[in-house]
Amino acid sequence: MQSNDSPSAESHPIEIPANLSVRQLADLLQTSEIDIIKQLMRNGIMANINQVVNYEVAAAIAAGLGYQPCLQPQAIRKPGGAISRPKKGQGLRGKELKGLKPRPPIITIMGHVNHGKTRLLDAIRQTNVMEAEAGGITQHIGAYQVEVNGQKVTFLDTPGHEAFTAMRARGAQVTDIVILVVAVDDGVMPQTLEAIDHARAAGVPVIVALNKIDKPGVNIEVTKQKMADAGLVVEEWGGATICVPISAKEKTGIHELLENLLLIAELEELKADPSQPALGVVVEAKMDKTKGPLATVLINNGTLRLGDTIVGGTTWGRVKAMFNDMGKRVRKAEPATPVEILGLGSVPQVGDTLKAVSNESQAHKLIEKRLEEKQQEPRAVNLSNLYDQISTGRVKELNIILKVDVQGSIEPIKGSLEELGTEEVQVRVIHSGAGNVTESDVMLATASKGIIIGFGISAGSGARRLAEIEGVSTRSYDVIYDLINDVSSALKGMLEPSYVEVIEGRAEVREVFSAGRKEKAAGAYVTEGRLSRGASVRLRRGEKVVCESTVSSLRRFKDDVKEVATGYECGVSIKDFNNFQVGDILEFFKTEIRR
Ligand SMILES: Nc1nc2c(ncn2[C@@H]2O[C@H](COP(=O)(O)OP(=O)(O)OP(=O)(O)O)[C@@H](O)[C@H]2O)c(=O)[nH]1
Ligand SMILES: [Mg+2]
Asked: Which among 166, 361, 456, 558 is most buried, taking Cβ atoms within 10 Å?
């Protein structure tokens, strides 16, 4: 049954390494690990996700999914870390493909707190930038380029998977390769695992830098084992992950790390056409007091030139000046080159697309189109609208981020969820972990158009706010049966709508006065959120709820108002209620369909 919905119904050739893990095979064949495990079971092999299978076994599975497998030649396997996935062509078609030339890879460094990300970035910059441009002073413009064996490599300055995923959530994926820094004295930590999942969800290859090898008594092998457990099996153990021991402090292994990066870049066949008008992404933007709006852009394709008319997000201008990462004025910027540009009318947002256009009227047209598109952005996926989205073909996989109270709950819930997949829709748990829902989880859900499911936990207030802004569905459960049942019903379009209460604001009654013959009103002070006239209201006195009703009038001084914000006083009357007392708490709330 899997062969029908595989991405390669019209069988295409695929190179498979001599050995690889089940997880890597799933990535390579662009299917879920569960599918691979099922196929293996049919072939009489019981395997878990991290188990390594050989070429013969992998080839049989690939053939079953409609691919034409062949053994990856040794010469290519040597660099090996990046499995050669079918390349997406970077959105370029037909005639545009002709002018394609290799471009520098763009790298993001990720890893657990204190594992040495910043120190590694510094080490790379110091050892490679200085020799390339002696005398130059490096500028922090959000990204920089170094030269390795005469080839350029671009680094994004902001390390960490949060920034990486935040960019993706805004629709901009600029990173080609991730360096995952793992300090060998600390090993694989929660954020190491999180980084792996974030890179995997983006489909970006990972190279591992085992850092701090200068420390006495560290055991590299233990860390390699932990990496393998997380699905990154190093080459010498038959996997495809390149792993380079380094010391960012003593600057050892840096050159080897960079050389391996170039090998992966070569396998990825990163190309762009410098003869086209520029298309790029804003990676940093600020308002400079004397210069005006400044934006650092990375050019994805084409060449940006001084004087070009450009649109950045929904603002436009002309390139008045450009500076490279050494602070030098430049006249043009080619693909994957970071430049700081001056000339946009206002400050664009990080993640915005930058495009060179032929003239001002084209710029206005493009801005108009972007504003329209913004309004029509497809609604995020949630359990209430899932079935509609599946039926209309908008959703082919349900990406879930699963957060649980204790580690032990992950596997059973994850297994049950992934089994719910059908012919039409696959269910994938793209990230799981113990602990509350974090902002980084919300960004991952946004970037991957996924939902968040919690078990025995809740979302932190920052995460909850962000989820609301991004429209990400977060549901928490305390009973596994309810959790599985809801997802299962949602997949079949049989989920009964349920309602949640959203508190909009609270106010304290400071005074009680007459409002009409018998009616009483409360003089109240808004302590949090806001009060609005259309809301329901609950009156709490100590532990007790005295009444639940609706607002009949909301006033500031003598005027009827629609809303009152935190820190203001107002007069409130409640329908069919007169018994206010000083000290009562008014809780304003709305009931919404649960997403
Ligand atoms: N011995 C040794 N210490 C290192 C090495 N690399 C980094 N450190 C130290 O580890 C600590 C953390 O390094 P950072 O580079 O700040 O780590 P980070 O990953 O950027 O940390 P966060 O930004 O907080 O997530 C610092 O005290 C570094 O000096 C190394 O190769 N060897
Ligand atoms: Mg740092």
From this structure: 166
Phi-psi region of 516 (alpha: psi -120 to 50; beta: other; left: phi over 0): left
pTM: predicted TM-score of the whole model, two decimal places:
0.71
Q: Which of 110, 113, 118, 121 to mutate to test the pocket of ligand 1 (most atoms within 8 A of CB)?
A: 118
Centre of ligand 2 to C-alpha 470, Å, is 27
> Phi and psi dihedrals of 279, rounded to 5?
-135, 125
Q: Which atom of ligand 1 is nearest to the CA of 115?
A: 19
**Secondary structure letter of residue 299 according to DSSP:** E
- Name residue, tokens 């009060």: 531
* Burial class of 273 by CB neighbour count within 10 A (0 to 12, 13 to 18, 19+): buried
Residues 66 and 8: beta-carbon distance below 8 Å: yes
What distance in Å separates the CA atoms of residue 67 and residue 8, rounded to the nearest whole number?
7
Best CA proximity match to 299, nearest among 443, 158, 145: 145
DSSP line for 493-556: T-PPP-EEEEEEEEEEEEEEEE-SSS-EEEEEEEEEEEEETTSEEEEEETTEEEEEEEEEEEEE
Q: What is the pLDDT, as a whole number, of residue 377?
A: 65
Write down the residue that tokens 């970071």 correspond to: 338
Ligand 1 center from residue 189 Cα (angstroms): 15
Q: How many residues does the chain have?
A: 595
**What are the structure tokens assigned to 355, written together?**
């495009």
